[in-house]
Design a protein that fits this description.
mainly alpha; globular; 128 residues; single chain
Length: 128
């Protein structure tokens, strides 16, 4: 079984899968994975699998590419910012706007703009 299949596989035991966001076709995690890999960037399959784990749309991949285009964040920071992004919360726009209008460093901006679910998952010792 490949790494991508393992990381993008079915939900953990006892966990129900949320329905995909409106407009996504098939598996939203795999669509996200393919979106990032086809975007022409240098993201590895491992990074793409981590980013898209739990994705409900292609939003994490689009977020990742937007913040990487300007070279503002390292891969781990971009992963932290964009993982679990949805079409409605757009952490890339938050980061890019805050970067031009504040004196916070990148790590503080990532914490400010990351999706709310990411903060909740830090409290779960066994992950999503």
């Amino acid at each position: 079984m490949g790494l991508a299949a393992l990381l993008l596989g079915s939900p953990a035991l006892g966990q129900t899968a949320d329905p995909p966001e409106e407009g996504s076709e098939g598996s939203p995690q795999f669509s996200c994975f393919e979106e990032l890999r086809s975007g022409g960037g240098a993201a590895s399959e491992t990074l793409a699998a981590q980013l898209c784990q739990g994705a409900r749309s292609e939003a994490p991949a689009r977020c990742f590419r937007r913040v990487q285009e300007g070279g503002f964040l390292s891969d781990p920071q971009a992963l932290q910012l964009c993982q679990y992004a949805t079409q409605s919360d757009d952490p890339a726009s938050c980061f890019l706007k805050a970067r031009t209008s504040s004196f916070l460093d990148e790590s503080q901006l990532v914490q400010l703009c990351r999706p709310p679910i990411a903060e909740m998952l830090k409290l779960c010792p066994y992950g999503p």
